[in-house]
Amino acid sequence: MKIFIQNQQDKVDIDQHISKIIEESIVNTIKVFLEEENFEISVLIVDNSFIKELNRNYRNVNKETDVLSFPIFEFKNGKLLEDIVIMEDEIPLGDIVISIEKAAQQAKEFGHSLEREIAYLTVHSVLHLLGFDHIEEDDRKVMREYEEQILQSMGLTR
Question: Is 112 flagged in the annotation as binding?
């Protein structure tokens, strides 16, 4: 599995520990649903102004958010809905954009560590790449159960 993490902000210091949390969150989420490990995910770490612009451009929502997911293939609840033929070694699942600035604000607001918030946002976003959503209440419950299960497996609880 290839995971690319790029930091494009300077408001919050990002160290190797944060990168490791992101990688572990991705791996632990993927392995719940997919047997193969030949996937690729890109993670972009940004500030609030950058993610606000993306949110406005891609979702027509003119406000900052904590995380955005950009899937490449169509999944539904962890199952691929289309046949794909990839000519490369890794199958690109999609891109994740995390506002580290928003994550730091939320960690403080919720009274837990930045590491826990980053892990949560990463797991949440990977679940979106895998076709989970939280628009309907039943879907939200399923997604929240997976989020908590994966975070607990990493030793990250509220």
Answer: no
